[in-house]
Amino acid sequence: MMPGAYLAKVRTRRRMSRYRLADLAGVTPQYVFRLETRADETPSPRLASRLCSALDIDYHSFVELIINHRVNRLIGCLYRKYGTMEEQ
């Protein structure tokens, strides 16, 4: 799952608006929207900590989700550029 989609899922489950999350995390609602909707958008460690606090989610689990997402995107890029090991 993309980190932004996870944030949106948790936020909506907690019945929290983007405006409220933005206020609690100290960012703009537009930035929360970008985080939730753009696959290439991930928060800095400091902002991730503030978002996790605002949503009452585990910081380390969220950072692990971000790292896994980035690694999977990198692997996808490498496969598109170089193909699979079986092709070589």
Q: Quote the distance from N terminus to C terminus.
A: 30 Å
Largest sheet: none
- H/E element order: HHHHH
Helix content: over 70%
Structural class: mainly alpha
Strand content: under 5%
Q: CATH class, anyone?
A: Mainly Alpha
Radius of gyration: 15 Å
Structural domains: how many: 1
CATH topology: 434 Repressor (Amino-terminal Domain)
CATH architecture group name: Orthogonal Bundle
Give the uncertain stretches in residue-range form.
Answer: none
Key descriptive features of the protein:
72% helix, mainly alpha, 88 residues, 434 Repressor (Amino-terminal Domain), single chain, elongated
Layout of secondary structure:
Elements: H1 3-13, H2 18-25, H3 29-37, H4 45-55, H5 59-82
Structure in words:
The structure is a single chain. With 88 residues, the chain is mostly helical. Helices cover 72% and strands 0% of the residues. It has helices at residues 3-13, 18-25, 29-37, 45-55, 59-82. The longest helix has 24 residues, at 59-82. The radius of gyration is 15 Å and the shape is elongated. The model has no long low-confidence stretch (mean pLDDT 92).
